[in-house]
Design a protein that fits this description.
200 residues; mainly alpha; Cytochrome Bc1 Complex, Chain D, domain 2; two-stranded antiparallel sheet; 2 strands; 31% helix; globular; binds heme C
């Protein structure tokens, strides 16, 4: 079952990358590909004084493609309890370095609108909850990455713009494949039938 899901995910990545409204707008130069809201959201996303999202979810416009990840580990406070104790130690498990406690690798937000729930533990159910997480104090943690800007009292409009922008990261679905959520088997019922026909 696991193998099946992994294969599915990589299929999704290779087929989808490159044709989202965002790609057509920023990399393809099509000014009409994104809505006004999404364009404002992109500005917030890149603005070091505002969202500052791009420092980790990098765009690399000059290279002509956008990977949306710096491929590094960061501490966001995911996996930390209110009192600061960690329910999930992240990279520390492997590195045993103190500064890696609660650090997770930056995922790319492509097709993000279709891939809820969010964060490695899936505890955030919507993109709105993700923004609430970034904007609020989050779960404080001595090592929390300083690059996380708490959008200073973002207006409802600013939040909405950022969400519309993230929705513009969704590429067209290949004709024969449904949305990832439809595609993934709900229940992981292994086929009861003896697949190898090896009954005595
Ligand atoms: C300091 C680096 C850093 C900054 C700044 C940052 N992120 Fe993240 N982001 C991460 C990491 C690391 C994760 C994964 C955390 C986890 O899995 O627990 C993540 C997860 C996410 C996810 C969920 C992805 C998924 O597949 O579950 C979204 C959406 C997201 N970030 C959007 C944003 C937005 C929008 C901003 C700006 C407001 C932002 N990020 C700023 C590092 C960062």
């Amino acid at each position: 079952m696991k193998g099946f899901q992994t294969r599915n995910t990589s299929l999704e990545r290779t087929e989808f990358v490159g044709n989202s409204p965002f790609d057509r707008y920023l990399l393809g130069g099509d000014q009409t590909a994104m809505s006004e809201e999404a364009i404002r959201g992109l500005e917030l996303y890149r603005d070091p004084e505002k969202g500052n999202c791009e420092v980790c979810h990098t765009i690399n416009e000059e290279k002509g493609y956008a990977l949306f990840s710096d491929d590094k580990f960061h501490i966001l406070g995911v996996g930390a309890e209110i009192d600061g104790t960690l329910s999930d130690i992240g990279r520390f498990e492997i590195s045993q370095a103190e500064e890696d406690q609660g650090a997770f690798k930056t995922p790319h937000p492509r097709n993000i609108a279709d891939s809820a729930p969010y964060m490695h533990d899936g505890h955030l159910k919507t993109l709105k909850e993700v923004l609430d997480f970034y904007n609020g104090p989050g779960n404080s943690n001595d090592f929390r990455d300083e690059k996380i800007k708490e959008l200073d009292h973002p207006t409802a409009q600013e939040r909405a713009d950022l969400i519309v922008f993230m929705e513009a990261l969704t590429g067209e679905h290949p004709a024969k494949v449904g949305s990832p959520s439809e595609d993934e088997p709900e229940a992981t019922e292994p086929a009861e039938a003896s697949a190898d026909g090896s009954s005595p």
